[in-house]
Amino acid sequence: MSRSDRFPRLRRLRQRAVRRRVRAAIAEELLGTPRSLAVVCAFTAFMFAVGVGYYAPTADEVPVVLWPLYADSAVAVALGGGVLASVVPTVRRGGSVTADAPTSRGLAYLHTVAFVWLVQFGLWPLVSLNLAVGQYVSAPDALIYYWGVIGTHLLFVGLALLFPAFGRTTRGALATALGLGVANAVVDYGLGYHPPLLYEPGPGLTAATLAIAVGAVTLAARSFCRVDKGPA
Q1: What single string gives the DSSP state of each residue in 92-147?
Q2: What is the pLDDT of residues 39-55, one digit of tens each?
């Protein structure tokens, strides 16, 4: 007997409509009231501050114009904060975050790029840190710089997965997100302005970063409705 046969609810989650309803319910629970939205926003602001603190000591070694691509995790969280800010007026006036949140072509770009960057850089530490796992877990501050980093970055993914409950995308937004992912890899590994690591990254991390970027864009294309369409 397969796992899906033993757990019918897991089998139902294979249905796109069911997944959308589950996502919408979670989004309403976490973002649908002023109090819960404020908590999520406050935690997002905290993660942004931590990210800025991580990149700030080495920022002067990077040209200012490249800071948005260098400080990728902090920028991803800032974009996520922008998405949360866009639903604040709706929630404050008592509207449904999934049914009444504003939509526009400009917001579709914000939703898509924020989603892709949060997923991409939420998953990136799983690869980058584990390529030198021995060095990280044996470091005196491993609790923060291994388990802490991986744990907080996985929360990036959790935040991003809420956005398709009310956000939209377009082909242009998806192409832009993919282009930014490639540009980030060029800056990090082509120009050498990668985030601080305990080792010098090689082709393996470069290939993995690009693969994660493509996967994140693919997930966005499958998760979001188009800006000119209703829910699937």
Answers
A1: HTT--TTTSS---HHHHHHHHHHHHHHHHHHHHHHHHTGGGHHHHHTSTTHIIIII
A2: 999 999 999 999 999 89
